[in-house]
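Q: Start with the shorter request: fold the first protein.
A: Done. Sequence, then structure:
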Amino acid sequence: MKIDIIGDIHGCYHEFVELTKLLGYNWEHGIPLHPSGRKLGFVGDLTDRGPESLKVIRAVWRLVIELDAAYYVPGNHCNKLYRYFLGNKVQLKHGLETTAAEYEALSSSDQEEIKSMFMQLYDNSPLYHILDEDMLVMAHAGIREDYIGQQSSKVKTFVLYGDITGETLPDGRPVRRDWASQYHGQKIIVYGHTPVLDARIVNQTYNVDTGAVFGNKLSALRYPELEVVSVPSTMPFVKEKFTY
């Protein structure tokens, strides 16, 4: 299996295009397709905070649903956008307000189309992907070894939000345990969720969320080569958002 797994895009469509071109993908048909059949992987949080969330949704929908040319797992921002589209009461903050503003600016028919696309993408995607004959796992915020293969509310919380303690930091972010340092499995786990300055490789885990939306870079892990490829962000740099 040959796959390029991209970290949290958060509406940074320009960086997404540049990264996929650097990885050898061709945009001749308006989406990134690889001449040798490599596929893309997305670890969630496609939208929010960045300038072009809806373009990202359209591209990923085409790749995953229309062409079966990519793999996607939802992140916590994806989950919140899904609940927003369902009409549930969600707070328009932490980035959702930017996606909602893009959505509200559309015509009613275009709103229906993008809403339908995203909900179909979300509904048809697993909580986490187990790939390459059980040797590779894609999960938004990671996954504990003993949770792999399980489906429960506890596993869902972990996969979407990380190993949270229930406490919060002064800026409102949840306190998270460093689950990756305790991971001793053989499966390679690729995830995002927590922005890091450089892809964080601990044991057999790879955090590829290098904070594109916070002005650092957008990164992908090439598998099975296990090579990290990045492009710089065009967004303003926000140092305090980075854990490592």
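Q: Next, the second protein, separately.
A: Sequence, then structure:
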Amino acid sequence: MVSDAPVIRAVNRLIASASDQRASDIHVEPNDDGLAVRFRIDGMLRNAVRLPAAMKAPLVSRIKVMAGLNIAERRLPQDGRLRISVRGNEVDLRVATSPSIHGESVVMRILDRSKLALDFKALGFDAELTRRIREAIARPHGIVLVTGPTGSGKTTTLYAALSELNTQERKLLTVEDPIEYRLPGVIQTQVNPAINFTFSTALRSFLRQDPDVMMVGEIRDTETAQIAVQAALTGHMILSTLHTNTAAGAVSRLLDMGVEPFLLGSVLTGVLAQRLVRRLCTDCRHPYEPHDLPAGLQDLLEAQRIRHLYEARGCARCGGSGYAGRVAILEFLRIDDQISRLILRRADTPDILAAGEASGMRSLFVDGLLKAASGLTTIEEVLRVASGED
């Protein structure tokens, strides 16, 4: 059944359709009466197609064969990777299977290098923020962190930073879980917990490779945090991610992990927090004057001198959703002398936030409002992802 032509065509059609619709993920979900397939487009799941129950086993098995997984093992989750040509473009897919009561569920993450924007402007950075982030990553040593929830584009931002630093004079090493995109000129390594090859062990081994820049996929534990700090102290630039909601919150998280304040204050260069919002379709967006908004929000719009916002209408180009693509809303905390002194005193997150805003930091929410005012997104999208972070 796995080699049957209809099954092969069905899988190829699904991948091609998802790629054409700019989907980031394909969700294959078995249920009582068949197989539901959904695409995640611009961060939102949409129903794609329903397949009959007879397709459940052969379709999942075909995907597993393509990804080099064990088709006989249906009781345990498996991870794999495959490459396929779609409309002449090579597309990588990261495949994850998981057992369920109705059969195996599959999620395929689409990694299309042709649609990867490794440019700060394309990601949503304005000229001033681009200047600040370039200044931070261009230092000979230090730590620059990107924070935010899962799926907020942190890795893409780090890849953009790596592409800026990727010159003949520098040696760049990364340790990731998993490697999402291959970057030419960068030595990329994937962690393997099964053989105890973790972020901390990889980072320790990297120090013997004479690197200039090291990217650590995520600082998850005290050991990784402390090795990263030591690496920065000995003359390396460290790029990494952290799961915190705000830029100022990253400082408290690292202190809670056991990093000494006097070390953190001397090596931390900057922290970028980000979220992804859906980008308005330029063909059908429509301007309007905001009225009847909550008092606090109305005051904030007036303080920023925002007179017009835009709404999503929907057209043929965007499939009726009113949105096409995504853009980041951002806040960047530059660690200056004042914030270093606050770190030394183990100051609370609100104090660090206040010091950052006094030195020119724009919060996630305000950056979102300004992007809504310029027609990049809607106020509803900003409220959806950043309303609790200001």
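Q: Describe the second briefly.
A: DSSP finds 14 helices and 15 strands in the chain. The two ends are 54 Å apart (CA to CA).
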